[in-house]
Amino acid sequence: MMRPALTACLTLILTAAPALASPCGDRIDGVSKRVQSEVSQSISANTSGQGNAAKRGGEGVTGTEGQRANESPQAPPEKSAQAGQGADAAQQAKVALEEARTADQKGDAQACEAALTRAEQQLKKAP
Amino acid sequence: MIHDAKMMADIAKAKPALDNVSRRGILGGAGALVLALSLRPARADETQTKEQKEQKFGADGMPHGWRDDPKVFVAIAPDGTVTVTNHRSDMGQGIRTSVAFTVADELEADWSKVKVVQAWGDEIRFGNQDTDGSRSTRHFFQHFRHAGAAARLMLIQAAAKQWGVPASEVTAVNHTLTHTKSGRTLGYGAVAKAAAELPVPTDVKLKDPKDFRYIGTGKIGLIDNFDITTGKAVYGLDTKLDGMLYAVVARPAVYGGKVKSFDDSEAKKVPGVVKIFKIDGGEIPSEFMPLGGVAVVAKNTWSAMKARDALKITWDDGPNAGYDTDAFRKELEAAARKPGKVVRTQGDIDGALAKAKTKVQAEYFVPHLAQAPMEPPAAVARVKDGFCEAWACVQGPQAANDRLMKALKLPDDKVKVNVTLLGGGFGRKSKPDYVVEAALCSQAVGGAPVKLAWTREDDLHHGFYHTISVEHLEAGLDEKGMPVAWLHRSVAPTIGSIFAPDPKHELPFELGMGLVNTPLNIPNMRLENPEAAAHVRIGWFRSVSNIPHAFAIQSFVSELAHAAGREPKEYLLELIGPDRKISPTEIGDVWNYGEDPKRYPIETGRLRGVIEAAAKGAGWGRQMPKGTGLGIAGHYSFVTYTAVAAEVEVDDKGQVKVKAIDIAVDCGPQVNPERIRSQMEGAVVMGMGLALTSEITFKQGRAVQNNFDGYEVLRIDAAPKAVRVHLVPTGAWDGPLGGVGEPGVPPVAPAIANAIFAATGRRVRQLPIRDQLSA
């Protein structure tokens, strides 16, 4: 029969173990949901045909939104160059998230946290 | 009795003042009819809540969305003739037929009494008209079903009212309305006018698919077949108007070039010349606007061309004068050998590569291509009294409409674009620069209609080319020969470069064409996109970036199979892995062809299914004679799954002969199997052309190839004796529809390259193959 003190000690270790093993893991889960949502949002924002996607994407990544705005008036107002920029940001957030996962699995908490911070910064860029 | 086609023409003329036309007046004038004219419907996004706006996919998210109003799309004449308005451009894919029989099926119309007319460019009225991205049936099938079903219900309601019976006692079957209790009958034409006055029902029941007469049967031939085969069909080049003049343009040979000066004294001496003038241009990015140059308007095309030849133009070639594709390929290769922007990663690629038992590396090259539709770009325009009307073979009439507005500084209600048949498009005719050129010519001569024609040389010299790309792949294999690490660097100038100055990286929609959404089951993976500048106009070419991605990935998998000593088809299937659904959101694909990631995940079982079907069709595994081989490739594009098994023979001089192609496709519900087959056959021919012979090169910024002697599309003697199309059946009719026009192209080239390896042991890593094996 196990002594009460030992039982309590094991219980404490077991319950504390996940948190101690991966403090970055909890953040990963939270950021992951936001990234997936942003990816889905980006698909929606880019749902307007290849021409508009190219226009928005090109303008989004070069910051030239509006220079030729009157040339594609068929684009709905919510589908602007910002959408193109948002798609790139969502994709880069996903990349950073996966880098965080890999670092976490390797036990590199510092790299994990840094990658998650990059992911969050990318998410902030999204419109 | 008014002929319904005339009526449709009258309605067409009413644009742009359609809202002001008295509906009662038109109906009264007709004396009968019609389910044809309604007030301009509200834009979908004007009627939706903020929450509904937040995420839209598919047709919902397209500019101006979709319409299913039968009063817009269906007209019924007193004699019962049904006229369906098709708002998508037909470039040989047969969408006019598919739209018409979809409406007719739900309408319970007799197909022999159905006609189709082409909508003019008006997305407010018809919904989105951009005929690209393999989306016409995918986006509009259900909406056209609704339009037909609503019209059927309105006819039933009108008949019931006339008989004084409940609508539930009336049936509509094959153009006949029947009161089931009394046996009385009426034709559709007899109640069309009364039906037109009823409100469009909102609660419409679609037919049970088991009752389809036309949809999915594969028995409906092209509705335009007779006109096409007898020369009556009107393409862009066929449009003729009274008093029409003809024009050609001398454009800068180098992208971004400008006219410094020109001497037209000799050109003016050519009999028939009416006007010579400069068209502004030369801006980078060009967007869809003209390149500029010097236009010649004459009384006939020959005079215009001769005068163009006589022009003495001094050009400023601009910043792309040094563009040389041989040198640029080396730049791309250098970029591909260094780390680039990471666009997808999973696992520890560096660690896995370091530990791998075997490493394999390869690079693949795909050159610029030209869409080269058999009918070059052409348009007729008349700019008179502050109104521009154009007739053109365009994939995107709204895009043409918008550019005309910009070029002529006219409001939307002063521009109208009529859409002819297209003698091929392949993405080139999504860009309406030639329509703008025609309008500028008409304006310059004071309003006479002008036909602007591009020669084949114009088309090959001044196109929106398929990009040029280098794909660099590395893999680390474990002791069983399976990859534990996969590195893919894809480097190519982006289509975004025609919209923004020097964007450097490919855009998500390009990366989402077979790169980021690679469905291979590999634990450690990194996909990169190094920088590349654009020096020519880059545009969409049938299946777009799927071409280089599929060529590289499917060739590389075959190379890995060889390195592992494995049978290539089984290796490919094992690499795809078990049946599963991959959400685009889980792999960071922010494109997904614009479709809902929940409704359109990547289904690896379907990809495996088409590979198995193509292999079975080709008799995969049979003993092959010396010098022959079978190769296989599968690819997911435009939310459709395709696979190709190629049988090739390579003679002792290294000449490649493709003997047979088996292509399998799973595009979800098969609305028009006859057209799916023909689209796959056409894709095989186009895919073989780019695999074997097609290439555009540049020297000093200028396209080298002039005509089909230099830019070889597949010729009849090179076509395979057998092209077998295998339609893989899928589930219910309410399942997700996939694209058809483009997905057949990507797996063709890698399947041929893999077959060549099987036949000869020699690996082809650059396209076109031409005489590489004769060296």
UniProtKB/TrEMBL annotation, chain A:
Domain of life: Bacteria
Compositionally biased residues, Basic and acidic residues: 26-36, 96-107
Bias (Polar residues) ranges: 37-51, 64-73
Leader peptide range in chain numbering: 1-21
Swiss-Prot/TrEMBL keywords: Signal
Ranges where the record places region Disordered: 22-113
Name of this protein: Uncharacterized protein
From TrEMBL, chain B:
UniProt-listed InterPro entries: Ald_Oxase/Xan_DH_a/b, AldOxase/xan_DH_MoCoBD1, AldOxase/xan_DH_MoCoBD2, AldOxase/xan_DH_Mopterin-bd_sf, N-heterocyclic_Hydroxylase, OxRdtase_Mopterin-bd_su_IorB, TAT_signal
Superkingdom, taxonomy of origin: Bacteria
SUPFAM superfamilies: Molybdenum cofactor-binding domain
Record-linked SMART domains: Ald_Xan_dh_C
Occurrences of domain Aldehyde oxidase/xanthine dehydrogenase a/b hammerhead (ranges): 230-319
Name under which the protein is recorded: Twin-arginine translocation pathway signal protein
Organism: Methylobacterium oryzae
